[in-house]
Write a structure and sequence with these properties.
The chain has two domains: 118 residues, 3-Layer(aba) Sandwich (Rossmann fold), CATH 3.40.50; 34 residues, no CATH class. Strand 1, helix 1 and strand 2 form a beta-alpha-beta unit. It is an alpha/beta fold. It contains seven helices and five strands. It is 48% helix and 11% strand.
C-alpha cells in the first residue's frame, strides 16, 4: 500500500499551513502527522535547496504519493517545478496536486497540464516584477524618495555631526538620539 505524504509550504512566518492540511483531509487523503512536512520559505528558493523539502526527499520511497494543494507549493518557476517532478518521478513517487483536480503530475496528462500552468505562473510573476520595476522607475523620475524613512531628520543629523566633531563616541550619540550606531555612522559620514 502506498504511503501518503503532504508537502505544505508558506512564504512568510505570519502565514500558516493549516489550510493546506485541511484541504488535503477534505479531499480524502489520510496523511499521518509524521508524513506531513511543513515549512516557511519562499517558493522562489529551488525545492531541492529547501531544508524541509530535503527532509521529505529522505523519507520518500518508490510507490509513495506526495500531495500538494497547489502547483506553486513545489516552486514558482516552470524549470524548478519540472525538475522537482522529474526527480520525484525517477524515485518512483507520484505527485497529486489538488488544485488540478488531484491530477498525478507524473502521468503524461499531468505533465502537460503542469507545464502549461507552471509557464503561465512564471509569466505572471515576470509581469509583476516588470510592473514593480516600472513603478519604481516612475517614482524615481518624479523625485519621490524610495525606501524606509530616515531614522534621523535634518536636525538629528546636524546634532550627530556636531557631537562627533566635539569628540563624543558613536555609541553615546546613538544612545542619546535613540537610533542605531549604523544610523549615526551614516549621519556623520563614516563608513559602516
Amino acid at each position: 500500500m502506498s504511503r501518503v505524504f503532504l508537502y505544505a509550504r508558506v512564504s512568510t512566518a505570519d502565514q500558516t499551513t493549516d489550510n493546506q492540511l485541511q484541504e488535503v483531509k477534505a479531499a480524502g487523503f489520510d496523511v499521518r502527522p509524521d508524513r506531513v512536512v511543513s515549512e516557511v520559505i519562499s517558493g522562489g528558493q529551488a525545492a531541492a535547496l529547501r531544508p524541509g523539502f530535503r527532509r521529505l526527499l529522505d523519507k520518500l520511497e518508490a510507490g509513495d504519493v506526495l500531495v500538494v494543494t497547489k502547483l506553486d507549493r513545489l516552486g514558482r518557476s516552470a524549470v524548478d517545478v519540472r525538475t522537482t517532478v522529474d526527480d520525484l518521478e525517477r524515485r518512483g513517487v507520484r505527485i497529486h496536486c489538488l488544485a488540478l483536480g488531484g491530477a498525478d503530475l507524473t502521468s503524461p496528462a499531468g505533465k502537460m497540464v503542469m507545464q502549461v500552468l507552471a509557464a503561465v505562473a512564471e509569466f505572471e510573476l515576470d509581469l509583476i516584477r516588470e510592473r514593480t520595476h516600472a513603478g519604481l522607475e516612475r517614482a524615481k523620475a518624479e523625485g519621490k524618495r524610495l525606501g524606509r524613512p530616515s531614522a534621523l531628520d535634518v536636525a538629528g543629523v546636524t546634532q550627530a555631526r556636531a557631537r562627533k566633531a566635539a569628540g563624543d563616541s558613536i555609541s553615546a550619540i546613538a544612545r542619546d538620539l535613540k537610533v542605531s550606531r549604523a544610523t549615526v555612522l551614516r549621519a556623520v559620514g563614516a563608513v559602516c
